[in-house]
C-alpha cells in the first residue's frame, strides 16, 4: 500500500512540474510594448531589467527639458530673478501654443517649474535666452553636459525638444535621468501636481502633464513627458518597484496614452517577477 501511495505522489508531482514551469514562463514573459524604444533600469544596482531598441537614435521631444533644467541650475544664476517672455520665445518651428503671452514677466524659478511640470515651451526658450552667450551659448552648454554624462549618441539644437534634431537613445536617456534625479529642485518641480502662475494675462493654473504622479502607489520621484509628430509620445519616469527606485524610458509610443500604458505594463510585469 505504501508503494502505491508513493507512486501516486511521484506521479502527481511529475504532472505538476510542466504546469509550474509553464506558469513561471507566463509570468516571466516580457511585455509587448507599443513604443518604438524603451528601457527599464533598477537604479539601486544599475541593472537593465528590460530593453527594446534601447540604442536606436530617435527624436526625444520635451524629454529634452530635463537637460535644459540641469543647464539652468548649473549656471548658478538666481532663480528669484525675473525674466520676460519676448517675441524671440515664440515657437516658429511647430507654432505650438503657449498660455504665456509675449510680455509676461515671471520669476525664473516659475519658468523652470512650468517648463518641467507642464512642458511650457516659451518658458524654456526664455530661460535659454537669459544665459551667458544667449541661446547659442545655452545649447552649447547642453551638448557639453551631455558629453560629460557620456551620452554619446545624443545631440541637441534647442532647449525645448520641438526640433526633431534633438536626438538621443533610451539608454543615453537613463544617464540623463540619473543625473537629473540628483537635483532636488528638478525632482520637486517635475513631480508637483499644479502651479498657480501670476505675471501673464492673469492667474494661470498649470497642471502636471503626467497622470502617473497622481498615483500614490507609484511613488514617482522624477518624470518628464514629451510629444512631437516626429518623436511620438515619450516618457521618463522614476517609480517604486518592490520598494526600489526604477527608471522607465518610453520613446515613440503611437497614441496619446500609449506611453503611460507601456509604463504601467512594464511596472506590472516587474512587480510579478
Commentary on this structure:
This protein is α+β, with helices and mostly antiparallel strands. It has a single domain (33-272), classed as Beta-lactamase (3-Layer(aba) Sandwich), CATH 3.40.710.10. 40% of the residues lie in helices and 21% in strands. It contains 8 helices and 11 strands. The protein has helices at residues 2-28, 64-74, 108-118, 121-129, 134-148, 170-181, 184-191, 258-272, and strands at residues 37-42, 48-52, 58-59, 82-84, 105-107, 167-168, 194-197, 204-207, 222-228, 232-241, 244-253. The protein is globular, with a radius of gyration of 23 Å. The chain starts with a helix and ends with a helix.
Give the topology:
Blueprint: H1 2-28, E1 37-42, E2 48-52, E3 58-59, H2 64-74, E4 82-84, E5 105-107, H3 108-118, H4 121-129, H5 134-148, E6 167-168, H6 170-181, H7 184-191, E7 194-197, E8 204-207, E9 222-228, E10 232-241, E11 244-253, H8 258-272
Antiparallel strand pairs: 1-2, 1-11, 3-6, 4-5, 7-8, 9-10, 10-11
Helix pairs in contact: 2-5, 2-6, 3-4, 3-7
